[in-house]
Every structure is written in structure tokens, then in C-alpha cells.
Amino acid sequence: MTAGISRPSTEENISSTLSAGITDVATSFDIADASKLVQPCYLVIDRVDSAGSLKATSLWEYVKVTNISSNTLTVTRGANNSTPQSHSSGAVIEAVVTSAMFEEWYDVLNPEHTSTGGHIISTATINNANILSVASVAHLGVLTSLQINSAATVVGPGLQLNPVWVMSGFVSAATVGAGRPLVMPRSGTWQAFYMNNSLGASGSSVIVDINKNGTSIFDTVGRLTHPAAGTFASTASVKTKDFVKGDIFTVDIDAGQAGMWVKDLVVQGNTV
Fold it and tell me: Under a CB-based contact definition with an 8 Å cutoff, are residues 73 and 31 in contact?
């Protein structure tokens, strides 16, 4: 449903004449030409005579047009505190911008804007959209930040946070800071980590550590160990599970058999 705010005419200085006389209570009448009027709008009757001379203000009547059908207007009489009265056939009728029109704009726009022009949305109507309930969505995440090479997907408060560290290329030795540091946007708890190495280690294993503010979150025996290409999950081995907004997490490649090779390492963590 539209707000129903009155509009000015499509051109300036639009006027016409009454096709027949009207009483002071008539709410529908014909005019000679309504083609350039829009609805809703305001008109004034008998402001001037046929020669363009001003009449006494007591004879002016403002009306609000609520519907236009061909040259027939449906109106509300006595707008702008004017007096409903009879008007003769041929009386001049003019399109005007009135104080009532500005009041309509104010009543609609003022509640929806702050003093600096920002929008205040209390209710919203969305047409032609399919809305899914949360219960029908298996994985719900709202993307608010994307960091290339450490590719962190940050979701809104109360939703799952799944940061991802990516290190492209080959590594053949222990490496500090594999992927960029991640600053946590909110508090939460780690649930699991997953690691993938597309090449696999060319020896017994590759060991990956996750650090919070420079300190490992695993016990010594709990770090991610990857003997070959594939995916590894660690849950119970996470010693320091909780974090707060502002904590910084980094990924290190700690160790592996001499001569190991790692290619395109991906580490993902899941939180609540």
C-alpha cells in the first residue's frame, strides 16, 4: 500500500473549468480537461474569474482530488480549512501546491528520518519475496567481512563463525604465520578444526598449530596432524576453547618429517 501523499501536476500552471455548476456538498464533478492532473492532488476553485482577475478570498475553495476517471473528479471538499460552497458552470479550477500537501509529506517523511537525514525503519513491507524461516535453513551465515588469503567469513551475533586460513603454494619447512592473522569480531567457543593439504606430506606427517594471541590453543599432543591429503577434524584436543572479541588467531606449520612438502594448506575452524 502506498502512502497516498498528494502530488503536484505534471506541468506548471494547469487549469480547467467546471463543466456544470456544483453544490456545496457535491463530491464528484466533471471538468473540461483533466488530462494533466494526477491523483491525489489539490485544486482551488474560483480563485480567479475567466479573465484571470483575483476574486475575494472568501470565494476560494480548496478540494483534494482522490480519484480521476477521464474528466470526472472525486474530491474531498473544504480542504485547507476553506469553506465548501456552490460554484457555477465555467468556474476556473486550478492545480495548486498547498500547505496541506506539505503537511502530508511531513507526516510521512518526518517519522522515518533522523535530524541528520538517516532512515528509521520501524516496519517494512516486502513484495514479491520468498522468506524462509530459520528452521528451514540448514546453514545460516551472514557475510559481513571477507579477507583474501585468510578468507574469514564473519557472521552476525549468535550465528556460527567459520574462519578459514588459506596458504597457497608449497612449503617444505616449519612456517610461522601461515595465512594472515584473524581478529575475532565477537566472543565465542571453538568447536572443531579441519585441515586439508592438497599434496599431502611427503613423509610421515605435517603438524599445524592454532595460536590465540601468540599462544597455542592445543595441548602438545593435540595439534592438527596430517599424514596425507584429506581432511582432519580436531575437537576434544582443543585445550583453550573460549575467546573474546579482539583476540587474534594465527596458524603455524610447526613440524614434520625432514623433506616434507605441503601444498595449498587450508585450515577451517567452527565456533558457536
Answer: yes
Q: Is 52 exposed, middle or buried (0-12, 13-18, 19+ CB in 10 A)?
A: exposed
CA distance 129 to 108: 25
Q: What is the pLDDT of residues 109-154, one digit of tens each?
A: 888 778 777 777 766 666 666 655 545 544 444 444 433 343 344 3
- Percent of the chain scored above 70 by pLDDT? 68
Is the pTM here over 0.70, yes or no?
no
The size of the chain, in residues, is 272
CA distance 223 to 237: 7
> 96: domain range?
15-110
164 shares its domain with 267? yes
**43-70: average pLDDT:** 96
| Element of type H or E holding 191 | strand 188-197
Q: Which of 203, 209, 206 is nearest to 222 (CA)?
A: 209
On whether residue 160 sits in a domain, the answer given is yes
